[in-house]
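Weekly modeling sync, notes
Attendees: AB, CL, MP (scribe)

Item 1: holo prediction request
CL wants a bound-state model with glyceraldehyde-3-phosphate before deciding which constructs to order. AB pointed out that an apo prediction alone won't tell us much about the pocket. Agreed to run with the ligand included and paste results into these notes for async review.

Input as submitted:
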Amino acid sequence: MTHEFPRMTGSAFAPDWFETMAVNASAAERRAATLTTRRTVKKEFQAAWLARAITCIDLTTLAGDDTAGRVQRLCAKARAPLRGDLMAALGLDQLTVGAVCVYPTMVSHAVRALEGSGIPVASVATGFPAGLTPLPLRLAEIRYAVEQGAAEIDIVITRELVLTGKWQALYDEIRQMREACGPAHMKAILATGDLKTLTNVYKASMVAMQAGSDFIKTSTGKEDVNATLPVSLTMVRALRDFRERTGQWVGFKPAGGLKTAKDAMNWLVLMKEEADVRWTMPDLFRIGASSMLGDIERQLEHYVTGRYSAANRHALA
Ligand SMILES: O=C[C@H](O)COP(=O)(O)O
């Protein structure tokens, strides 16, 4: 399927938008800590926010032992992420996840399994997760995934270009990846756990947006440190700054290690408080997660019935 919302165009390379930026790491940590302690979403609205979180999940499997069967089961869950009785009790008649995210050779299985559902298939590409295959191969991999039917491509950036401050080269590389995506939307994974400083995270975010990324994404899920709130706060500030300069709404995708309903709420609060409520909708916000849906379902069951069910009653997603 293709998206009805437009692709971002980015801007010319403009190093003056980020060169002098220095992020104060302890201030970012303090601000991130207040987001999780101040209750900004009232209890009675939490079920609605958790249902919103489901619509923002990029339901993911990125494992070496993925099979067509596993992808088909994941797609069945993507079409019906909540049990029928919970849906009815919550007054919902339709609910699906934001996308299903798989490796390129799994795209065709996911496309077939999701036919008619309107759920886009996202694929990681460009030598995920390290991104250290030659550029022509990385571009060919993007084109392959798009030909297979991926509507969204999650690319990884070359960390060395950030660590050595080669911002123009980073811009040029991401621009080429954007062209290779054709009509597919592009999410740029910064792999923030590899970037050493929040200042680098801010600069890489800005370059990725200038190069025309539709989303910026924190992590592959394979770095030692994946999505954290201070990193996300830094990226969200960059999103806001980019929007002020260009009028473009670039999306945000935290990913890696996010497993609980509490994580979902923390990130939704971050988007609402630091950005805009518009940045809590699936066209601008996704949560990349292979194992969060089960906990959200558990929490919603508790909301509806007052009890927790055993984890073995829930799908492993
Ligand atoms: O892009 C999504 C990530 O790979 C998911 O990471 P996770 O398996 O830690 O949820």
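Recorded for review: The domain at 22-303 is CATH 3.20.20.70 (TIM Barrel).
Action items: CL to compare against the apo run; MP to circulate these notes.
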